């Protein structure tokens, strides 16, 4: 999808605003959908990251979230089901000067697209992947998805799902993604900060966003969205800081052997006993432990779980090509087609 000349806003010589990244397309999501909040925060963040609209590309697959590229005044590709990471990999490899984002959903990314998602993260291609997780197939009218919880009654599981759900953060960490984070659609300030961090990261940045589908799975993350509940059900990660949460900041997380447990800071537990977050660990052991904390037994971690550096796939491939050109020359396509064993069909 290419913006028209009327839509594309020249970016040189002036400061960009959120309006510069808003397209003229009518936004067609259900009223109350969490996607509106994510789009709004993206438009607020884009002027701050220093990349002009004409150097940004949003790639999506199939699903409600995949309408995203239409609503931004940037370049975009509305791809086929599950293949957005593959499209983004090719694009970033041949055009490393572009900043490439992938917009996908739990169904699009983790079912038919699971293989492509895993290998994009394994390769550490320099792209940003936002996975909108609402634990349902919304666009196709409410079937259960790879992240739906056991017992979930949907149109395709009328007696309740018997599947074990995938955990997107665990998939990302298991695939060696170099940046892994989690946010909530309506925690707007926090979501914006996570998007900025993802934009700044060099390598695959994977962000799971809890997103409410108010038509087919309303309230799936109410414990994480309700302002009266979330201070006790979420723990916001800060690098180098102990895990403290609660409305009065009176609870913490410490390790009991290899098991995290909630302790009260009002009952004599010293803050020095608490688990301290380190997002830079070479091995994702701590990040994996935090990713597996589940409500209601434990608060769920939001923020950046892992942020490490290693060479990116696109840089390595292009360095390899440059080395081959230096050694052997750029070659000629016509000569290549006529080299080796050839024949003429009469």
Properties at a glance:
about 350 residues; alpha/beta; Rossmann fold; eight-stranded mixed β-sheet; three-stranded antiparallel β-sheet; about 25% helix
Structural commentary:
The protein has 346 residues and is of the alpha/beta class. The chain folds into two domains: 267 residues, Rossmann fold; 35 residues, no CATH class. The protein has eleven helices and eleven strands. Helix 1 packs across helix 6. It is globular, with a radius of gyration of 22 Å. It starts with 34 loop residues before the first helix and ends in a 9-residue tail after the last helix. The N terminus is likely disordered.
What can be said about this structure in brief?
With 346 residues, the protein is an alpha/beta fold. It has helices at residues 35-45, 84-94, 106-112, 114-123, 168-174, 188-200, 222-225, 230-233, 285-291, 313-328, 333-337; strands at residues 56-60, 75-78, 99-105, 127-133, 179-184, 205-210, 234-236, 244-245, 251-256, 259-264, 300-307.
Question: Helices, strands, pairings?
Answer:
Blueprint lengths: L34 H11 L10 E5 L14 E4 L5 H11 L4 E7 H7 L1 H10 L3 E7 L34 H7 L4 E6 L3 H13 L4 E6 L11 H4 L4 H4 E3 L7 E2 L5 E6 L2 E6 L20 H7 L8 E8 L5 H16 L4 H5 L9
Parallel strand pairs: 1-2, 1-3, 3-4, 4-6, 5-6, 7-11
Antiparallel strand pairs: 5-11, 8-9, 9-10
CATH superfamily of the largest domain: Thiamin diphosphate (ThDP)-binding fold, Pyr/PP domains
Task: List how many beta strands DSSP finds.
Answer: 11
For the termini, the CA-CA separation is 42 Å
CATH topological fold name of the largest domain: Rossmann fold
User: How does CATH name the architecture of the largest domain?
Assistant: 3-Layer(aba) Sandwich
Task: Tally the structural domains.
Answer: 2
Name the overall outline: globular
Mind describing the biggest β-sheet? 8 strands, mixed
Which class best fits the helix and strand makeup?
alpha/beta
Please give the order of strands in the largest beta sheet: 2-1-3-4-6-5-11-7
């Amino acid at each position: 999808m290419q913006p028209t000349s009327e839509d594309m806003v020249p970016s040189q010589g002036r400061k960009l605003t959120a309006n510069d990244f808003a397209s003229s397309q009518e936004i067609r999501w259900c009223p109350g959908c969490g996607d509106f909040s994510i789009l709004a925060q993206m438009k607020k963040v884009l002027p701050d990251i220093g990349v002009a609209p004409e150097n940004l590309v949003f790639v999506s697959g199939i699903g409600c979230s995949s309408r995203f590229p239409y609503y931004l005044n940037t370049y975009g590709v509305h791809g086929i089901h599950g293949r957005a990471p593959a499209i983004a990999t090719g694009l970033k490899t041949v055009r490393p000067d572009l900043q490439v984002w992938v917009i996908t959903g739990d169904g699009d990314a983790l079912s038919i697209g699971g293989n492509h998602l895993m290998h994009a993260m394994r390769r550490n291609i320099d792209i940003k992947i936002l996975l909108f997780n609402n634990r349902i197939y919304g666009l196709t009218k409410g079937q259960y998805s790879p992240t739906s919880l056991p017992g979930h009654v949907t149109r395709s599981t009328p007696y309740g799902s018997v599947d074990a759900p995938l955990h997107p953060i665990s998939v990302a960490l298991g695939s060696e993604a170099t940046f892994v984070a989690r946010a909530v659609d309506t925690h707007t300030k926090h979501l914006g900060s996570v998007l900025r961090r993802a934009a700044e990261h060099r390598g695959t940045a994977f962000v799971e966003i809890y997103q409410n589908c108010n038509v087919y799975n309303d309230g799936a993350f109410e414990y994480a969205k309700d302002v009266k509940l979330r201070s006790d059900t979420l723990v916001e990660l800060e690098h180098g800081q102990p895990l403290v949460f609660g409305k009065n900041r009176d609870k913490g997380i410490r390790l009991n052997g290899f098991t995290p447990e909630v302790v009260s800071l009002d009952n004599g537990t010293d803050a020095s006993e608490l688990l301290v977050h380190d997002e830079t660990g070479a091995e994702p052991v701590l990040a994996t432990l935090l990713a597996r904390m589940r409500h209601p037994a434990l608060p769920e971690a939001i923020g950046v779980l892992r942020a490490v550096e290693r060479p990116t796939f696109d840089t390595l491939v292009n360095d390899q090509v440059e080395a081959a050109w230096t050694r052997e020359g750029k070659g000629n396509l016509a000569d290549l087609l006529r080299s080796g064993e050839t024949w003429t069909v009469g």
